[in-house]
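Milestone M4 deliverable, item 7.
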Amino acid sequence: MVFSSLFFIFLFLPLNLIFYFSVKNRKIKNIILVLFSLLFYAWGEPIWVGLLILSSFIDYINGLFIEKHFGKPIAKLGLYSTLIFNLGILITFKYSDFIVQNVNAITNLNFKEPGFLMPIGISFYAFQTISYTIDVYRGEVKAQKSFLNFLLFVSLYHQLVAGPIVRYSHIAQEINERIFSWTDFNNGVSRFCIGLFKKVCIANIAGEICSHYLSSDLTTITVLGGWLGIITYSIQIYFDFSGYSDMAIGMGWMFGFHYHENFKYPYISTSITDFWRRWHISLGTFFKDYVYIPLGGNKKYIFRNILIVWALTGLWHGASWNFIIWGMYFGILLLIEKVLLNTILKRLPRIITHIYALFFIIIGWAIFYFTDFNQLIYFMKLLFNFTNQELYTLEVENMFFENIYWLGLAFILCVPIYTWFYKFINSISALNHFVPLITIVLNVFLLTCSVILLVGSSYNPFIYFRF
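Output delivered:
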């Protein structure tokens, strides 16, 4: 089940809200959320609910064990148990085929690939439970005594299958005690509608244009067709993932949970360093707090630490060499900025640094898109006109001008126009009492546009579901 489906919008979510707000007892509210979350997760692949519950139970027990023996050497057993189990299921279900393929290539052996299906969201909930156990071991949070409450933390469907990666410390208090607020609920509805619009009206359209060029025979497209394809993929992946995060954060507000922001307008960045402070923030902070700093951070072996973190960041996204190359590509760019470019970038006009950042970000998305290395090399040559293909055709020109208003809207929504708009409205005292009405009208408009497109199109993937 996906958030951007008519079934979810008009049946699953309303039913969950009705059942949730029909009771006052917090424990029953938590039970309702857990049941709806497990149903949501089981909708497409019910077999993996067992793995989710098993993972939760093991980490719940390890948290209690660590707290009971806090400060003693034996507490490490609980930590190691969590690491071995969660990394073990990640390696088994996500990376086993990749490992066997590379062993076969290196040794000329012919081991059979296991062919495991990957449970949706395993990368997200494995990292969440790992962070919980580490935080208990460090003494930064108290172990959760109720398995029901711990299962709620792990399984909350708002963020279960595609993030953001929610740490236990972020919502520990709200699991035990949530205060309903109409302001939060209304803001949650608005945030959900914005995310849905971003996903359906921007990401889905971008995905169809992108697929027209990048999923076809690369020898048949033009140079500008290649650029149009990768630019629309850059639009798709941002609005797809940030739209999902907006919907997750919005639903969290509706139910009294306050998840941290996952995106802060990354395409307005003026450097690669700035971009990664704004993109998939929950993943970046996870690797910073649980890998980069324990390795030594900025204090020792900084080059090694950065390259390790970015190799792991790439590998987290998928079991393919292109993802590792993608991670290392950004790791090397970050090192270059840290050593050579940061001082220079600060002196350059903002428009220059913005173009610089966007260029390398878009090239990075090309590395991310093509899992076939030969296709990737060919596409890179195509972008820079080393394949002697046509520069452009009338078809590319028509595609561009047919979508020029949509492209303009996508570019505008890459900047905080929504925030600026509401700041402007609130700055005019005479309009203050119209803000609720303006919000309702805007939400209805966004929801209506999204529903119309959902009814008329079957193309509705979520890119980050496969990670």
